[in-house]
Amino acid sequence: MLKYDAVIVGAGPIGGFISAEISRKNFKVAVFEKNKKIGEPVNCAGLISTRVFDFVKIQKQKVIQNEVKGAHIHSPSGKKLTIGGDKTHALVIDRSIFDKEIIKTSEKKGSDVFLNDGVLSAQKINGKVELKTSKNQDVKCKLVIGADGPFSKIRDRFALPEPSEFLRGFGAEISNISLDPNFVEIFVGKSIAPGFFAWVIPTNRDGTEARIGLCIYQKNAQPPKKYFSNFLKHEPSIKLLKDAKIDNYIGGIIPLGALKKTYASNAMIVGDAAAQVKPTSGGGIFPGLLCGKHCSSVAIESLEKNNLSSSFLKKYHKLWSTDIGRELFLGMKFRKIFKNLSDKQFDKYIEKFQHPKIIDTITRYGDIDYPSKLVKPLLKNAPSLLKLIPSVIID
Fold first, then answer.
1. Rounded average pLDDT over 280-301
2. Which has the closest alpha carbon to 88: 106, 76, 71?
3. What b/e sequence results for 261-278 when a residue is b if at least 16 CB atoms lie within 10 Å of its CB, and e otherwise?
4. Residues 250-279: pLDDT tens digits?
5. For the domain with range 2-44+95-162+258-335, which CATH number is right: 3.50.50.60, 3.40.640.10, 3.30.10.20, 3.30.1330.60?
């Protein structure tokens, strides 16, 4: 039987970051990953803020593909709202290389990484966690951390709550196009991506390659692939993606609605497993790493004190909730407004947002990690927007 102080299930960027942090303190750490290769298959749009590099110390030039300065938002009827354009607001990364570089750091710090070996079961026996893997390995540890995605086995085995909802996504990496590399393209509308939106993200500085895709409600009758096919035939899309060559397809699930409990005796969950995802954009890397910082610090303290009790690990939940819990909660409020808008309302509001003062406010205060920061300045400069936003999210 393999014995470790901590086992991290899932070798994505969050799991890799946490394993490196715990290994730094000379604890014996293992990472189990069900996929054969780190960072594959890719199921992420790969758009992040610069804050991500406050957590992961990797060479930026290895992973950054492009810098985005603004967005063109397309309404259902074809109206276009342009925001930003003045400075870098987001970075486009090669997600596969990003994940690999983080795991390299983890291994350098001493973590054992097992690929193509997922955790099948976990149970508590005599104050320890015993795991069984797909390669029939028996593993015993003091602490298990589930960084194993939307349908987390660790979340399930420790009877922790489920996310509020799931989005289904489908997309592709394309080439042979001509885009403005400084802008992402966003498309909204019930017929385009019900419950969310579609995107075109230039992935190089020439605008000749891009990552495109969309997400929809999980319970939608039609699969996301069907909406994706329709999106490629959408008139504004045709203009942008004429002669595009599809190099490979991308798909995935996004969990929304951060959990009200993310710990149990000898266990914590983090990242997508805990639905620590921005409800407004579906981005999980920044909030996952932020929560991962708290997860690793509490893990280290619990191992040092040999206290793996639920009451001690609760500290992790309190820390991340204090740090970003309100933002994720407000994000779900914003999402509720967004997903209930009709196509007619989308058109109306995109037209209303064309006012230079509103565009300037969005450009100045907009933040992809903390969208709630925009609310008060926006209402101050455009009080007529107040009727769009229920009082519950501005108090």
1. 97
2. 71
3. ebbbebbbbbbbbbbbbb
4. 999 999 999 999 999 999 999 999 999 999
5. 3.50.50.60
